[in-house]
Amino acid sequence: MNSKLSTSEDRAVQIIKLESNAEFRAKKSVLLEIYNDERVADLPLVVVCIAGAARKGKSFILNFFLDYLNHMEKHPTETWVLNDNTKLTGFEFQEGEDPTTMGIWAWSHVFVIEQENGRKICFTLIDSQGTFDKNTGFKTCSTIFALTCTFSSIMCFNVFTDLQEDKLSTLAVFVEHAKRIFDNLGGGSGKVFQDLAIIVRDFCHKKYLDDKNGGQKYVENSLGIVKVDELQSTRDGLNESYERLFGFIFPNPGKKVSMEKTTAVQDIDPEFVERAKEMVEKLLSQAEAKSIGPTVLRSKNMTDYILQNVKCFNENQEFAPQAVQIVNRNLMINLEVSRAVETYNKNMDEAFLNRKTGFEERTLDDIHNETFAKISQDVENHIKNKEILAEVMDKFGEHMTQSFFKYYEKNELLVEVRVY
Ligand SMILES: Nc1nc2c(ncn2[C@@H]2O[C@H](COP(=O)(O)OP(=O)(O)O)[C@@H](O)[C@H]2O)c(=O)[nH]1
Ligand SMILES: [Mg+2]
């Protein structure tokens, strides 16, 4: 691809913009350049998003993730180290209010990493801006937040100093909605989302900071001390909705970071650096690709996924779980159908590979039936929801009939070759 994005240096690019009329616009050409790049298009995609109040170090911490992925892509067999010479640049820190930067940003390069099992998987990093800001309307904030939750397979929720109820309320509202959005998709473990990492910055409780598992304990305890019904339901909602819940606590990173602006690791409190390193390795080393219900998202599916979700949020000004659910359900069904058809065509092509003469009609029918049976079984094995399964099989059947007809014609031609 010889385009502006891929020829210039990697950087954060805006993929979703807040328009003046409180509507969001997803930038299709930018998305296509990032996610449909041949290098990554067919790989399962891990989506790391961060959200939370403005100027609380989201972009700053994302640069640790960026450094890890840069390293792992280039030097997969070498250990990742952060030393005094490391500069953590990439996502820029925001100084003032600038409405034009509101929205959602992605790193222009999608990273390809080979996992321990030898499979390749790719990673995208997504930053958000304007969330929970006092100058941004509540609706705008919650839309940015809901979108990042919807897109992510690892959702990082960044808060300052502690985890009090008010900080959890937006998360709780969304999680409530999300349960209804994805309820119907079926399959998998039944949970709506994958990983939630709650990151607490400028954390001061020594008791937890001294404990190796302090972050996890703090988050679990704060969600667990049930004084108010609402908090109880937030906790239940989180546990029901996320497969894994992680907690990380960070001390103040030091004056140079909090008062000035620095990207040098040597200016950051070593304890902060150590914790950031542990967090990134924990979250990314065993990451799983994003899935919508039982369907794994590949990089090339991301553009459509984002476009349709943004459209849906725009069209339903009052956040409407049902509408979002329909979008996600249809997307998932279409992905399943196109994958089944792709597999069918691939198997049939293989059967014809190097064939100089045609098959007997019965043999061709057998090949077709066997291929169909195998694919149907695969689909049935991972889609647990009966209605969705029926819809996928119906559509697959239609497409496959058309495909079969092409192979039938192709066979006829080969049979003719044999006759003459
Ligand atoms: N006190 C404090 N400041 C931080 C921390 N991390 C980053 N900063 C500083 O906070 C400011 C805003 O950071 P930024 O990453 O742009 O925040 P964002 O708006 O949430 O993305 C920058 O000057 C950072 O250097 C932290 O953990 N604690
Ligand atoms: Mg930022």
From TrEMBL:
InterPro entries: G_GB1_RHD3_dom, Guanylate-bd_N, P-loop_NTPase
Highest taxon listed in the record's lineage: Eukaryota
GO molecular function: GTP binding; GTPase activity
Pfam families the record matches: GBP
Keyword Nucleotidyltransferase: no
Swiss-Prot/TrEMBL keywords: GTP-binding, Nucleotide-binding
Residue ranges of domain GB1/RHD3-type G in the record: 42-311
Entry-linked PROSITE patterns: G_GB1_RHD3 (PS51715)
Family affiliation: Belongs to the TRAFAC class dynamin-like GTPase superfamily. GB1/RHD3 GTPase family.
Protein name: GB1/RHD3-type G domain-containing protein
Species of origin: Panagrolaimus davidi
